[in-house]
Design goal:
The complex is a heterodimer of chains A (314) and B (512). With 314 residues, chain A is mainly α. Chain A has 13 helices and no strands. With 512 residues, chain B is an alpha+beta fold. The chains are: A mainly alpha (314), B alpha+beta (512). Chain B: One of its GO terms (molecular function) is peptide transmembrane transporter activity.
Chain lengths: 314, 512
Amino acid sequence: MGGLIRVLGGRAVQAVLVALLVGTACFLMVRLLPGDMAYRIAASRYGYDLVDGAAAEAVRQELGLDRPWPVQLGAWFAGLLRLDLGVSLASGEAVTEALGIQLGHTLLLSATALLFSLLLGPPLGALAGLRAGGWWDGALLALSAALRAIPAFVLGVALMLWLAVEWDWLPAAGVGGWREVVLPALTLALGLAAGSSRVARDAVAAVVASPFFGFARMKGLDDAAAFRRHGLRNAAVPVVAYLGLQLVILVEGVVVVESLFAWPGIGHALVHAVLGRDIPMVQGTALTMGLLFVALNACTDLACWLLDPRRRAA
Amino acid sequence: MTAAPLHRRSLLLAAAGLPALGRDVAAQPAADTFRVVTSNEINGLDPGRSGHVFARMQVAETLLGADDGGRPVPQLAREWSLSEDRLTWRFALRETARFHDGSPVTAEAVAACLERARAPGGLLGNAPIAAIAAEPGAVAIRTSRPFTPLTAFLAHYSTIILAPAAFEGQAVRAVIGSGPYRVAELLPPQRLEVERSAHWDGPTPAIGRAIYLAAGRGETRAAMAEGGQAELAAQLAPETVQRLRRNPRVLIDSRPIPRTRLIKLNCASPLFSDVRARRALSLALDRQGMASALLRSPVSSATQLFPPAMAEWHVPGLPPLRRDLREARRLLAGLGWQPGADGILRREGRPFSFTLRTFSDRPELPGLATAMQAQLREAGIEMKVAVVNSREIPAGHRDGTLEAGLMVRNFSLVPDPLGTLLQDYGPGGGDWGAMGWSSPELGGVLERLGETAEPAERAALRARASTILHEALPVIPVSWFELSTAISRRVAGLGVDPLELSFRIAGARWAD
């Protein structure tokens, strides 16, 4: 039990550090971007051809953009302690409210993508690992290398043209029903599955070649039973640990994929906030993504802890 | 080995979840839903920020609308009149109009919305309005001087009229309009779903439901049009349009709209202060080539500032802008410019060199800028291209650092271009108009246009204004604008609004 508390406590400290670092870094980076912030904010509010110097000046006055930057940053952290992330400079909405909606969409998309990738990657990889060096092993290597090398944007457009335009199976983009989530989730899942299939393949190949697996076969278990009882759990630990690492790919992919498929999630909001110099939105979205990352890693720790009795003993 | 069959089975089970989508559960929603896909996101509920979405989806109405030619037509105001002294406008409201919450559209509610739209930063704040008053069944607006473009300002989306219950203090809590459709579901910034309003006092729309989807990527919008997943796809890129024309499912509507791509020049700089230098620059441009090769629309090559779509301002008799390198060189030589060893013109040891700022909000602009760079080089002019943020053009105008800027000017921000021209070419120029140039004659013409209602005099004044701009070239027109919209053949009777005020869904029906 002490091990578990240590693991989760470490993640909690990490969450606080993420909040401090992400909040400050986002603020400073947006301030350092070239050009006049007031103009950019006014452009994202009213459309670029309606903006003139007078409108930009009105924005500057309204938002107090000429206050010294430590004062503005301090105000944000004070708000954070009250769980108040401020108000979007572009839409005037409370950032927490907007994030609540976007986070739901991003979680739905990420969870679906993760589910698809789990259905695709590890089973295919395990199959290759059971017959390491076979034709399927070689084919999967080529396929996963290709899928990992294609940027999410290209993969997304290809899937869109194939499954939505040619076959008319799925909506090309949008949000609302369950069908809309399939294409963006599949785009993300193929990239994820490419990675997890490799790890699963190696883990299974190692297990199959191990003395304990040989012993299980020798005592008379057939392949299926031996793998179920002695292979699965042993091979699962590296796969689950790798899933934690893969979340980086997921978070990075979400930004591109959400924009392409018009999915109103956090990644999409982040892109818009950066373009619009909407500092509270940038801080809010980046902070949420950072904390999400910490939370998912904590889940990974927990899963490994449950899977692996050696850790519990430690 | 017996392991493989087991794993093959579990694999099949795993994979079965995904492709179990037959054609019967295809991507089409209910047959009665009209789907619109554009690039404009729903940026909150405030009319000033996203009124265009609610106006175009016919959720909210403005006092007046505009026909294709920009002339005012009744909307919430059934008729209007102007007092003897030409200062007080009286707009009589449709008595039967109801907001979507069932409350009547009162003069007080209209006046309150218009007052709100006058706040700083709002477009209506640019009109010389002295007072807005609610009268029984009508709204009276007094201007401080005669101002005919007022009707056009009242058609702008930032002046949509919402029910009193829509507001909480000054903030908009819900969009409760008076149009044929009411908000069914709103998911900013991406999606708006509307349905017929039970309180609409006009003819019942044939189309019962509509969805607005904001998809920022052009590839996405094109794919939706191509796959028959959108009844109306707007803002299509030229290369997409070519492909969609071959698609039997869609009809491409391309029409010129009151917008021009132009080069804004700093006429105060020694390079461009002489009109002959500006004319030489204009003569060096190959507009026809750029329109055909880059914009894939030869007719969009500009021959004067205002496109033929702006019938009242386009003057057919003006000598068309054209390419003539020899004449350009002759004009420049007359100004003392002589070719140097590198082919670049020099005067008193200094090269004819400047930087053109442009931006990528309009994706075709950087490509056009690069083409012009090569064309000007042939005339001995060195132009550097800086692709910057759109704000760098108005900012450079203000601090005087802008030398030249390639941009798109929309002359129908309000349906009457006069409102825009007053901003752009009045004394001192404008952020998106002339810089370091002014013409007292043009100023007088525009001012007189704002005052007079006499049709013959107005026509003569408009022609004069166009001619002055054509001869003095404070900005150099490059190409006109074509609006390309893909419309599904499932729909009939849908007219595209060249002023982009409405999608006109309520007037359309399903094809048989």
